[in-house]
Design a protein that fits this description.
Elements lengths: L7 H25 L1 H13 L9 H15 L3 H19 L16 H16 L10
Helix pairs in contact: 1-2, 1-3, 1-5, 3-4, 4-5
């Protein structure tokens, strides 16, 4: 078929830019609006966890996406994003795991995209179009 369509490096770059580029604004919103971190801290406290763990969301939604975007330790950054999404689903979305919207879509489509997209990056790595390919 078309040989030009067989480009693993470009595919990995697009996946990296998409997952990290869409995750980063969520982290920046939390960074710029401290009320979001307060809500996360309160949710953690309700589970008997220390509220200081709320700042971990900044690692998972700001630092990690930046790592993935530039291609520096992409697998580590993606793994941090996976952990971030697992915690987010556990803390805020457990009741929606089996819920489907009227349109037929899963209630956790966005969370699922971030979780499984980041997991794919953990397994695939950055590709050669990265600052430091892994």
């Amino acid at each position: 078929m078309l040989h030009a369509l067989h480009n693993d490096a470009l595919g990995k770059l697009i996946l990296r830019l998409t997952v990290a580029g869409l995750m980063l604004p969520h982290g920046l919103a939390k960074l710029l609006n401290p009320g979001n971190l307060t809500w996360i801290g309160n949710t953690l406290a309700a589970q008997g966890l220390p509220t200081v763990l709320a700042y971990g969301v900044l690692i998972g939604e700001v630092v990690a996406p930046l790592m993935v975007l530039i291609g520096w330790r992409s697998r580590v950054g993606a793994l941090l994003m996976v952990a971030n999404m697992l915690v987010a689903i556990f803390l805020a979305h457990m009741g929606d795991l089996t819920v489907f919207k009227d349109s037929g879509g899963w209630a956790l489509e966005l969370q699922g995209f971030f979780l499984f997209g980041a997991l794919a990056l953990v397994l695939l790595g950055s590709g050669r179009m990265a600052w430091r390919p892994d």
